[in-house]
Amino acid sequence: MKRPLLDVIFASGKRKDFLLLLKEGPQEMETVLDSLDTTRQALLPQIKVLEEHHLVIHYDDIYELSTIGKLVIDKMKTLLNTIEVFDNDIDYWGTRDLGFIPSHLLNKTNEFEKCQIVKPSLIDIYELDKRFHEGSKNSDNLYIVTTFLHPHFPELMFELIEKKVMTHFIISDELLRKLLETKSAEFMQIFQSSFVQIYICNKEMNFHFVSSNDYYLMLSILKNGGVIDNRYILCKSKKAVEWGQEFFKYCLKHSKLLTGI
Questions:
Q1: pTM for this prediction
Q2: Considering the domain boundaries, does residue 214 fall inside one?
C-alpha cells in the first residue's frame, strides 16, 4: 500500500531536500551527493521511495522530477517559504492584525525572504532604521504608505530631496488634517518639492506603515485590537521589495493626489 504523499515528502528531510534540489532541474548523482552532503548508500533508499510514488524519474545516473513531481513540488516550495516566514517569529505574526493586506498579496507573504523582526531598544525607539534610510538615500524611488510621520520627518525628507530621491507618500485623511493644522514652513517646502508626491487614502488604514525603497521592505503592523508596538519587519530581497510596490499600487487605487493646501 502506498504512503500518503505528505508523508513521502515531509517525513524525511533527505527526500524533501532532494526534491527541492531537483526543482532546479535534472541533476547528476554526484552533484546531488555534494549538494546534500550525503552518501549514495544513505540517499538511494529515499530515492526509491520517491520513484515508487512517481515523483522522481531517472535515466543513467541523472535524476529529475516527474510531471506529477513538478506539480507537487511547485506548491510545496511556496508552502515551505510561507512556513519559513512565519517560523521566524510565530508569536509576532500570530498576534498581528493582517486584515489590511488584500488577499492577492496575503497569498504572497511567502515572498518575504531575508526578513527579520526588529525590536529597537528604548533609547533607539525614535531612531529610523539606518539600513533602510541608507538604502532610501541610494534609491531612485521611495514608496511610503503611512498613518504617522516620523519625529525627524523634515530632516529626513530634506536629505532625500537633496539626493533627488523621488518619494511617493500615501497618507491617511487623519494625518492630512493634522498636517494642515500645523502648516509648518518645513512641511510646505517639502510638499512643493518636485521630488515629492502625496496622495490621500480614502480607505481605512489599519496599520502603522508600509515602506519600500530599491533595496528594502519595511512594515510596522498593528497588534490585534489596534495596539501599536515598536517592533517592525525589515526584508532585503527583490521579491519583498516588489511586494511593497504592489501594496503601494493597491492603496493608490483608493487614493487621490494632493494638489494643493
A1: 0.79
A2: yes
Does 183 have pLDDT greater than 70?
no
Query: Cell 511547485 identifies what position?
Result: 74
Question: Quick one: which of 167, 241, 256 has its CA closest to 203?
Answer: 256
From the list 219, 188, 192, the residue with the least C-alpha distance to 205 is 219
- Range of 17's domain? 5-78
Q: How far apart are CA 49 and CA 47, in angstroms?
A: 5
C-alpha cell at 50: 520517491
Which domain CATH number covers 68?
1.10.10.10
Tell me what the pLDDT averaged over the chain comes to: 90
Mean pLDDT of the 52-63 span:
92
Same domain for 193 and 65? no
Nearest Cα to Cα of residue 198 among 172, 216, 178, 160? 172
Q: Tell me the chain's radius of gyration from C-alpha atoms.
A: 24
Report the 3 state secondary structure along 53-107: CCCEEEECCEEEECHHHHHHHHHHHHHHHHHHHHHCCHHHHHCECCCCCCHHHHC
**Nearest in space to 148 (alpha carbons), one of 222, 258, 257:** 222
| Number of domains, the chain | 2
Could you tell me which of 79, 12, 81 has the C-alpha nearest to residue 48? 12
